[in-house]
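Severity: low
Component: inverse-folding endpoint
Summary: output formatting inconsistent between runs
Steps to reproduce: submit the following structure tokens with default settings.
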């Protein structure tokens, strides 16, 4: 955001500082709100209406108001002047010139994975440590870092075999 070069502290670093991260977050949220407002305007336009307001055309096509007025003054698109600040433009002619504005991409919520946490489908922490030659503390760190579910029965902590095998695939057993 600040256009300064930086060395990433982690693999997942996108911004140089908390400040830049906050600025990017705010811009993203403002853009989402703007797109929602434009979508509401588009939904309120009747389908059969031939001439639409400049603000509605802006919402439908994503064309700036200045561009629309420039097209009107050049005579590229037909329009109706109903009085002060009441210009209507031809929707059909705009459809021929410009594509509709793309809808805001909504991120689908991730589907929660279903795990069998029965002891027969899981490793204990000790088994993982022996199998992959790791310390118990390292295993616990990886479980927390990658949000792997666990189940404790008595003194044993069970972790799904499928997740552990995916995590440590390629390591010597």
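Observed output (run 2 of 3):
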């Amino acid at each position: 955001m600040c256009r300064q070069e930086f060395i990433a502290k982690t693999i997942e670093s996108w911004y140089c500082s908390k400040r830049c991260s906050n600025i990017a977050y705010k811009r993203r949220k403002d853009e989402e709100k703007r797109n929602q407002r434009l979508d509401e305007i588009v939904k309120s336009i009747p389908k059969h209406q031939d001439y639409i307001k400049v603000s509605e055309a802006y919402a439908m096509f994503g064309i700036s108001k200045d561009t629309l007025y420039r097209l009107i003054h050049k005579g590229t698109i037909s329009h109706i002047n109903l009085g002060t600040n009441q210009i209507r433009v031809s929707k059909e002619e705009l459809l021929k010139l410009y594509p509709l504005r793309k809808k805001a991409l909504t991120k689908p919520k991730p589907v929660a994975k279903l795990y069998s946490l029965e002891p027969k489908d899981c490793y204990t922490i000790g088994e993982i440590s022996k199998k992959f030659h790791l310390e118990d503390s390292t295993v616990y760190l990886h479980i927390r870092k990658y949000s792997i579910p666990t189940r404790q029965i008595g003194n044993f902590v069970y972790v799904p075999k499928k997740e552990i095998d995916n995590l440590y695939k390629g390591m010597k057993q």
